[in-house]
Amino acid sequence: MYMVSGVDGSASFLYKMAKMTNSKLQKLAIFGMLIGVCVLSVNSAWATISFIKADEKSPEFVQATDFELISVLKKESKSHAPEPGTLALFGGGFLGMILGFVRSLYAFLKRIFDTTAAVLGAVVLSPLLLIIAVLVKLTSKGPILYSQVRVGREGQHFNMYKFRTMKADAEKATGPVWAAANDNRLTPVGGFMRKAHMDELPQLLNILKGEMSLIGPRPERPVFVDKFKEEIPDYAKRLAVKPGITGLAQVWHRYDETIEDVKKKLKYDLLYIKRMCFWADFNILLRTVRVVITGEGAR
Questions:
Q1: Tell me, what's the pLDDT at 273?
Q2: Contact at 8 Å (CB) between 263 and 232?
């Protein structure tokens, strides 16, 4: 685990955020106009994608009604009508092209949204970031920030940043382990930060670097990814998209404690990957606000 040292680490982080912010702010106006135009295009094909129905007891994805291609041709000629299989093939290919376009457009717009949200978040939350940095430094020994290797899209490794919530060298004796309820490795302010998910805020830098998205499956450490790939079928499929700070699995399920928790969260991750769209993201963001306020599932 690579550790970012003390105040220098915090100052370096804030400098990087400020440097990236200056260039990004100049593009926000263009991004806003582009989003408006592209949203109109997305709406024209909206019925081809699915959305999340946020049900408190049983969250599920609801398939929107597909376009029905009904064509009744009345001709006086004696030409034969196309075979049903031909029509199905044509219709499927046409819808496939629409879905491919919508997916590509969605990925493009999502990146714009991620960048805009990260820049605005860094600016608006900069006072809070500074306060957290001071509290971490004053209440425990060790660096303010730390980076940890995680597995991103297509299995690529990257350094994920977090505010330190545990004692320095917390895993020195145990090695990589999951956090537990009432974990005695937590710092005086670490428990509150984890409950409010404030320790995740430095990951705005990961979003600006293109390593993470605001919404997506939670990135896991390589040692756990290798283990889960062997024990859980289809686990590698969650690596098809960028990992996120928040996501469907994060807001509907608690932190991992057992392998069964991982299996349940995998179902949420794969469901999101299959049906992801802006309406799904919107519902996840709303749910995230609730989780942050209430501290549901945090340890």
A1: 92
A2: yes
Reading the block at residue 153, the tokens are 């899209």
Evaluated on CA atoms 221, 225, 226, 228, the torsion sign reads positive
Q: How far is CA 279 from CA 54, 177, 207, in A?
A: 11, 35, 21
In whole numbers, what is the pLDDT of the chain averaged over residues? 75
Task: Please choose, from the candidates 261, 218, 264, 260, the residue with its C-alpha nearest in 3D space to the C-alpha of residue 239.
Answer: 218
**Alpha-carbon distance 194 to 196, whole Å?**
5
- Sequence-distant (6+) residues with CB within 8 A of 201 are 121, 125, 128, 129, 132, 163
Rounded to an integer, what distance in angstroms lies between the CA atom of residue 253 and that of residue 20? 34
Name the least confident of 60-64, 100-104, 177-181, 294-298. 60-64
pLDDT digits (tens, 9 = 90+) for 113-156: 999 999 999 999 999 999 999 999 998 888 999 899 999 999 99
Tokens 């990951």 belong to: 203
Q: 11: which 2 tokens?
A: 């100052």
- Residue 132's contacts (CB-CB under 8 Å, 6 or more residues apart) are 163, 193, 198, 201
AA letter at 286? L
291 token code pair = 């989780």
* Alpha carbon distance 281, 215 (integer Å): 7
Q: Is residue 192 helix, strand or coil?
A: helix
- Could you state, in order of their start, the residue ranges of all structural domains in the chain? 2-55+62-69+79-294
CA atoms of 228 and 1, how far apart (whole Å): 21
